[in-house]
Amino acid sequence: MKAFAVILLLLVQACTYALRPIEPEEELDIRIVAPRPSDYLVVVKGDGGILEHKVPENGLLTVTIPETPPICDVYFIFIKIGGARRWKLTVLEGDRRVMKILVDKLLEMPKSEDGYVVVDLR
Fold first, then answer.
1. Which residues span the domain enclosing 21?
2. How far apart are CA 101 and CA 15, in angstroms?
């Protein structure tokens, strides 16, 4: 019985929330690498709506990530278990989804020498 009480107390005390600040609007430069980049459409979806970007022939585009209201990060015993930015980026080829990624993950990706996040769809 004591073990159960200790575990219950740990679970209750170990879960915490941290309010993040407002994420300002941000521009992200993306290079789509594919045989025909213009066949693709980049869709950014989130709480603020849907933004669509047709990829030009050269595969270079700038995507605007709208301002994100404050959200809470969720931690369990100092391990982050939730709270990512709600915006998701999807790459479509016609009606087929080729790629889907959280914007937070995309922002963490390394950039090329000219400042673009490279998305290889070959």
1. 2-120
2. 27
* Tens digit of pLDDT at every position of the chain (122 positions): 777 766 665 566 667 777 778 878 889 999 999 999 999 999 999 876 889 999 999 999 999 888 877 778 888 777 878 776 678 999 999 999 999 998 888 888 999 999 999 999 98
How far apart CA 120 and CA 106 sit, in angstroms, is 13
Count Cα atoms within 13 angstroms, Cβ side, for 40. 28
How does DSSP classify residue 27?
Answer: E
Pairing between strand 49-54 and 96-102?
Answer: unpaired
What is the tally of structural domains in the chain?
A: 1
pTM of the predicted protein model: 0.72
Strands (E) in 11-110, as ranges, are: 15-19, 26-33, 40-46, 49-54, 60-65, 72-76, 79-82, 88-93, 96-102
| Torsion sign (Cα): 71, 76, 78, 84 | negative
